[in-house]
Design a protein that fits this description.
222 residues; alpha/beta; Rossmann fold; Arc Repressor Mutant, subunit A; 5-stranded parallel beta sheet; 4-stranded antiparallel beta sheet; 8 helices
Length: 222
């Protein structure tokens, strides 16, 4: 699940990014409205956390643009009064949370956003004995949960969504890494290799199209 965090308090931004990544999210973080607008349309986003009071303007002004890109919004504010929450919801916020917030609650609210009718989160994906629930951030082999790292999970979701078509390398990198993360030459191959080993009992194979990308195919179940 790829999240854009818009927060101009540096300490809070760093804490939130680290905490959400530990909880399985891919997070891009920016400190201004201008930087947030630069991100829209560059990477596929599943949701955004938007601070109300930013150095270059009112966070609510970004909500219509997020909506046009199909990105649901969780608005964060230090002001917890009812009038402030109503203003945010009337401006188009999909949900609201008061700072300082608990990251477990933030994670739960983000997942709840993507389970709502009308949001574009993919339905539960099935291929052979594999089942993947994007909203729950969990995959299963038959009824046994798979212990996947966040990038392994994101790669599996991407391959299952596209199967049996090839997913090009640039698309994989955009889904698995944030804009400010350096990607070593063999990083993607290492993730593919780990996921391939985990999928072997399911009879699913990750087929490499050299120089192009990868695709998920159903082989023989061992």
């Amino acid at each position: 699940m790829h999240i854009l965090l818009i927060e101009d308090e540096t300490d809070l931004r760093v804490m939130a990014v680290e905490g959400l990544r530990r909880r399985g999210f891919v997070v891009d973080a920016v400190g201004s409205l201008a930087a947030a607008r630069d991100c829209l349309g560059v990477v596929r986003l599943d949701a955004a956390i938007v601070d109300r009071r930013l150095s270059d303007g009112e966070g609510l002004s970004l909500l219509p643009e997020l909506a046009r890109h199909g990105v649901p919004s969780l608005v964060a504010t230090a002001y917890g009064d009812i009038e402030d929450r109503i203003a945010g919801l009337n401006a188009g916020a999909d949900d609201y949370i008061v700072k300082p917030y608990d990251l477990d609650e933030v994670a739960a609210r983000l997942r709840a956003l993507l389970r709502r009718p009308g949001q574009r989160m993919a339905p539960v994906l099935m291929q052979g004995r594999l089942r993947l629930d994007p909203a729950a951030q969990q995959a299963w082999l038959s009824d046994t949960p798979l212990d996947l790292g966040r990038r392994e999970f994101a790669l599996l979701q991407l391959l299952m969504e596209a199967a049996p078509n090839v997913v090009v390398r640039d698309t994989v990198q955009d889904r698995l890494y944030t804009l400010d993360e350096a990607v070593s030459p063999n990083a993607l191959e290492a993730i593919v290799s780990r996921l391939r080993r985990r999928l072997a009992p399911a009879g699913c194979e990750i087929e490499n199209r050299r120089g192009i990308g990868w695709r998920l195919v159903q082989g023989e179940v061992p």
